[in-house]
Task: structure prediction
Amino acid sequence: MATNGFTDKVKIKLKAGNGGDGMNSFKAYKGKPACGPDGGDGGDGGDVVFVGDKNMHDLLSFRYTAKYYAGNGERGGSNQCAGKRGADIVVKVPCGTLIRDMDTGKVVCDVFEDGERHVILHGGRGGKGNVRFTTARRHAPNFAQKGQETAPHMVILEMKVIADVGLVGFPNVGKSTLLSKISAAKPKIADYHFTTLSPNLGVVRYYDDSFIAADIPGLIEGAAEGAGLGHAFLRHIERTRMLVHVVDISGVEGRDPLKDFAIINAELKRYSEKLAALPMFVVLNKCDIAGAEEHIARFRKTYQKTYPIYEISAIRGEGTDALLAAVAAKLKELPPAERIPADEFEFEEADRTQFEIFVDENGAYVVVGGLVDMLCRNVVLNNPDSMNYFQRVLKLRGVFKELEERGCKAGDTVIVGEVEFEYV
Ligand SMILES: Nc1nc2c(ncn2[C@@H]2O[C@H](COP(=O)(O)OP(=O)(O)OP(=O)(O)O)[C@@H](O)[C@H]2O)c(=O)[nH]1
Ligand SMILES: [Mg+2]
Result:
């Protein structure tokens, strides 16, 4: 969503680095070629890391760069040289950015605090060099393992500003004027509807207390159906701890302030019950205008028991002190802003189905690759259930079929990771 240059939702593509291939090589001295295996491991691929950055306030930069790829691991070298690890890619986002998987919409994480790091995608593992396949019986393995390949993933970044107090109300009631008086923020203020087109944040200091207030575009009846600027910006006050509902109590625009108040409350409720259930203070603004008294009396008569009500003149800075004192006190009672919990979700990162088959010097068939690494982590030797699973996976992934195509016959030795068995 982008209005007026403000970008709070983007789609980007991420990819962790591929693992580097393992090296297959042999030591060579003058006149004595191929003495022993010396191929090093490939380097692991780099990770995709997200970091919260309090100095970022929108997702604009992501409109220009849509791909974030970590570096690939380097190939292993001879002389047992390990390949270099691929460089991580570090993606900075504003605090309060949700990362969602595009296909499922699931929340991968909520980057909440400044400096908070999340590894979203792990680099592929480097392949093993041929040295690592040396055993008591196999002195000269003439094969090495490929690095794990990683898949790209599309994600959606969605900003949900983290503020303590959300300012809501009709357009032109003085929300931005109020923010400008109570904080150092300098939002645009003008005498027409929809002056504010994207959220403004301000740090409000009141003696030893401070909190963050968010001023969003005005709401009107039918916002749920997209009237005016619609509900798009309510997302930014969804995780505020309380609302300050600003009402133009002067009635200068010819509307009934009580009706305004009821309309906005209904719109909030239509957007989300949770939002509507937040504690709410009411600010009756523009009290300096003649004619306000009559509306103030009516408003108090109707809502006195339901909401704390503050009469102010934002433009003159009158009455704001009492409001701030009450808000600061209320915030002390309220729980802190909440992180949005991640859904149960994991990216399918590296290719765990890939395998290769080599024949070693003893005529044994050696299966290596991402599939084998995965199996070796999950299989317990000497456990019949585990071994059944192991056999099933090999069959399912086509390992047996490929073995036969490579000429493997009953009685031949097959080696998968630590497991050695006779082919039947
Ligand atoms: N007389 C008087 N005018 C005010 C007061 N507060 C704001 N205004 C005027 O009301 C108009 C609208 O003020 P804004 O602060 O831009 O109102 P807003 O609620 O942010 O409006 P949108 O961004 O369009 O939703 C401006 O002309 C302000 O000068 C007040 O206390 N008294
Ligand atoms: Mg405004």
